[in-house]
Amino acid sequence: QVQLAESGGGSVQTGGSLRVSCAASGYTVSNYCMAWFRQAPGKEREGVALIDYDGRTAYAESVKGRFTISQDNAKNTLYLQMNVLTPEDTAMYYCAAGRSRLCYGWLPGAYNYWGQGTRVTVSS
Predict the structure, then answer these.
(1) Pseudo-torsion of CA 3, 61, 91, 115, nearest 10°?
(2) Please, are residues 67 and 23 in contact by the beta-carbon 8 Å criterion?
(3) pLDDT (average), residues 74-87
(4) 91 phi, psi to nearest 5 deg
(5) Which of 57, 67, 113, 116 is buried most, with the most CB atoms less than 10 Å from its CB?
(6) What is the pLDDT of residues 8-49, one digit of tens each?
(7) What is the 3-state secondary structure (H, E, C) of the chain?
(8) Is 115 a residue whose pLDDT tops 90?
(9) How far is CA 94 from the centre of its chain?
């Protein structure tokens, strides 16, 4: 049974940093495309960052240069380091496990496992 468990969310002031984690079980993160999505109140879910089996990454324009996706293969855990946070980054953050080694953007259908999410709140 595949499980993805996010943690590390919380409240921070504008300009602060947070690192969210996604611990996987029943699934090897290094073998597949992995991604972070977020959903702000009243908005649709959007892709934030992704990493494929070979470590290639991609980011949404809104977070490029501020967020970094990475993974620890020994811990089978995906991370999202978020710096210079703004209120616009306030959202539930979800990790997602892809169906293949390569990433095909942030189409939800390309991901077959999702975590429950961790909330990030950035105050001004």
Answers:
(1) -10
(2) no
(3) 98
(4) 180, 170
(5) 67
(6) 999 999 999 999 999 999 989 999 999 999 999 999 999 999
(7) CCEEEEECCEEEECCCCEEEEEEEECCCHHHCCEEEEEECCCCCCEEEEEECCCCCEEECCCCCCCEEEEEECCCCEEEEEECCCCHHHCEEEEEEEECCCCCCCCCHHHEEEECCCEEEEEEC
(8) yes
(9) 6
